[in-house]
């Protein structure tokens, strides 16, 4: 339709339908429109087709007649559906139409669900498996000119092996969606298991070792005990006047003296450690300097040894003092110049001994350095701990004993301090409890996922075993039909004449003849069309197939197909298809019309030319 006016209006029938005409007359455009109105996701329109804004069609989906209407502005445009024939739909321009999205959206049925229910094709139960749409089914029922002839499915940019295998198995009635949904669930559960395990490992590494072993029950018990202690401390503070007795005054003074002594002693310990750290850091700098000296010395020794080797190999021909010729010594262990004895082996050994001594000193110095670094780090940790302890004790001392505080105030201060410590411990325990509860949750979920993954693996294995028998029957039948079509071909491809088996690899988007896949381009076209025709023919005699028994061929003369070979394949389509008793529809285009088939029972519309194109624009 273009601006509300029909530009192509033909009635196709059950059985074989042939669209014929010259190249470039618009036959492929009609095929694209048919693919699109049946749910195909397509927007690569040719110039003439792009001037159309809508496609309408009446289809038979099982026992139901549907009239479809779809805008061409997007490949994902929804489809308006009228439950009835086109004549009735014309009388209901708006009323009675229902819009269906191409893909499932939440609880709203998609066009694919509507179509599958009427055709008796199983529906996907899970949201993830709902990507098996009418578009995906049509990819195995529409052979176009854009797709390489070596591919089984109609080509599209984003594609997965899982979808192709699921579509192939579904059409052959092998396992419906069960195996595909199980594989999707297994993949999701395995991904979640990896994420949960990673989170658990990271959390356990972040927790102190003792905390990782704690349980919520032990933490709850500790928190309950601390709350009881806090209640006791609060009661004691409330009864301060009855709890402080005269003899406690003497005790207060004694405690203050002892506390002051403890503070001084603690300060002395921190001062001693600070001195130790200063001394050790000084020694560490000395050790580092000595180690650097040894490393430099080792490098210089290598240079000296190399220089000795080079100089030792130089022949002295003239005296460096007077310039007179020097008589070379015939003894290799004697100096050419002064004739003093030389021990070359001893010289090399001397360098080796020095190098060994230096390396040993470097190792010892490194060990001493590491020991000293560890000692300094340990001393600093101890100093930090002592400083914190000293600050806490000093704060308590100031609160309890300084100024005008007496026994009563000191008593309250001690109780309030204890309450504060209890609150702090409760806060830390609450934080620890959150972490331990998260560890428990992750461990529990990991255990659940382990069980679910194993269950899904077992289910997938069981489904594979159960479907293997059906796979052998279905693909065996398809192979027999495909082999018979190849045997009926003209003697152009030796492998076709001797073919014993045609194999389908849905996941890999490929087909082969006795394990071979590379043939002449025109033979690849013949093989591909024979393969997808065989699927329909097998579905026509085996009702366990979920094939819609619909085929759209727009490439039977692709890749330099000979006239006689094209005529032969057209004849094979008609002969084999008309033997079926089950309803079917095959639509193919040709520019090499077999004159024997130029009959009203087969041809649709006139023969198109560049002067009379398929679209009346």
UniProtKB/TrEMBL annotation:
<keyword id="KW-0175">Coiled coil</keyword>
<dbReference type="GO" id="GO:0006302">
    <property type="term" value="P:double-strand break repair"/>
</dbReference>
<feature type="coiled-coil region">
    <location>
        <begin position="439"/>
        <end position="466"/>
    </location>
</feature>
<protein>
    <submittedName>
        <fullName>AAA family ATPase</fullName>
    </submittedName>
</protein>
<dbReference type="InterPro" id="IPR038729">
    <property type="entry name" value="Rad50/SbcC_AAA"/>
</dbReference>
<dbReference type="GO" id="GO:0016887">
    <property type="term" value="F:ATP hydrolysis activity"/>
</dbReference>
<dbReference type="Pfam" id="PF13476">
    <property type="entry name" value="AAA_23"/>
</dbReference>
<dbReference type="InterPro" id="IPR027417">
    <property type="entry name" value="P-loop_NTPase"/>
</dbReference>
<feature type="coiled-coil region">
    <location>
        <begin position="186"/>
        <end position="269"/>
    </location>
</feature>
<feature type="domain" description="Rad50/SbcC-type AAA">
    <location>
        <begin position="12"/>
        <end position="240"/>
    </location>
</feature>
């Amino acid at each position: 339709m273009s601006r509300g006016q029909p530009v192509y209006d033909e009635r196709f029938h059950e059985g074989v339908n042939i669209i014929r005409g010259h190249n470039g007359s618009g036959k492929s455009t009609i095929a694209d429109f048919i693919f699109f109105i049946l749910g195909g996701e397509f927007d690569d329109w040719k110039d003439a087709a792009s001037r159309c804004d809508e496609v309408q069609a009446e289809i038979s989906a099982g026992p139901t007649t549907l009239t479809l209407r779809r805008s061409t502005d997007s490949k994902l445009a929804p489809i308006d559906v009228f439950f009835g024939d086109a004549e009735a739909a014309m009388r209901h321009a708006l009323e009675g139409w229902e819009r269906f999205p191409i893909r499932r959206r939440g609880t709203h049925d998609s066009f694919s669900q509507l179509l599958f229910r009427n055709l008796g094709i199983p529906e996907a139960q899970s949201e993830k498996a709902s990507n098996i749409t009418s578009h995906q089914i049509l990819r195995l029922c529409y052979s176009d000119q854009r797709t390489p002839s070596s591919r089984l499915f109609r080509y599209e940019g984003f594609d997965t092996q899982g979808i192709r295998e699921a579509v192939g198995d579904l059409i052959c009635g092998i396992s419906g969606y069960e195996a595909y949904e199980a594989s999707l669930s297994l993949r999701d559960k395995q991904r979640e298991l990896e994420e949960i395990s990673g989170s658990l490992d990271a959390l356990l590494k972040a927790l102190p070792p003792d905390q990782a072993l704690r349980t919520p029950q032990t933490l709850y018990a500790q928190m309950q005990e601390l709350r009881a202690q806090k209640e006791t401390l609060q009661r004691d503070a409330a009864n301060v006047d009855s709890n402080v007795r005269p003899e406690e005054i003497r005790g207060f003074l004694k405690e203050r003296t002892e506390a002051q002594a403890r503070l001084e002693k603690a300060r002395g310990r921190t001062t001693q450690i600070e001195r130790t750290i200063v001394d050790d850091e000084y020694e560490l700098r000395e050790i580092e300097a000595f180690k650097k000296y040894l490393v430099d010395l080792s490098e210089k020794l290598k240079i000296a040894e190399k220089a000795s080797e080079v100089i030792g190999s130089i022949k002295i021909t003239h005296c460096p003092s007077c310039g007179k010729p020097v008589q070379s010594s015939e003894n290799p262990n004697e100096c050419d110049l002064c004739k003093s004895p030389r021990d070359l082996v001893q010289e090399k050994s001397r360098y080796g001994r020095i190098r060994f001594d230096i390396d040993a000193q470097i190792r010892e110095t490194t060990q001493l350095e590491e020991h000293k670094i560890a000692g300094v780090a340990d001393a600093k940790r101890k100093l930090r701990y002592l400083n914190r302890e000293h600050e806490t004790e000093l704060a308590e001392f100031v609160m309890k004993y300084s100024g005008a505080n007496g026994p009563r105030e000191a008593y309250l201060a001690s109780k309030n301090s204890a309450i504060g410590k209890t609150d702090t411990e409760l806060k830390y325990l609450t934080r620890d409890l959150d972490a331990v509860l998260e560890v428990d949750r992750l461990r529990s979920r990991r255990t659940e996922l382990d069980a679910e993954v194993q269950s899904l693996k077992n289910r997938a294995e069981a489904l594979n075993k159960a479907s293997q028998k059906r796979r052998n029957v279905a693909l065996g039948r398809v192979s027999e039909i495909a082999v018979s079509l190849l045997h009926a071909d003209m003697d152009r491809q030796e492998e076709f004449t001797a073919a014993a088996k045609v194999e389908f690899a849905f996941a890999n988007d490929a087909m082969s003849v006795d394990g071979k896949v590379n043939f002449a381009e025109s033979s690849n076209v013949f093989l591909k069309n024979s393969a997808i025709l065989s699927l329909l023919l097998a579905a026509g005699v085996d009702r366990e197939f979920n094939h819609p028994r619909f085929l759209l061929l727009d490439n039977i003369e692709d890749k330099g197909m000979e006239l006689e070979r094209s005529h032969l394949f057209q004849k094979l389509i008609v002969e084999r298809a008309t033997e079926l008793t089950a309803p079917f529809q095959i639509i193919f285009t040709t520019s090499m019309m077999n004159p024997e088939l130029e009959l009203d029972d087969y041809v649709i519309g006139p023969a198109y030319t560049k002067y009379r194109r398929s679209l009346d624009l």
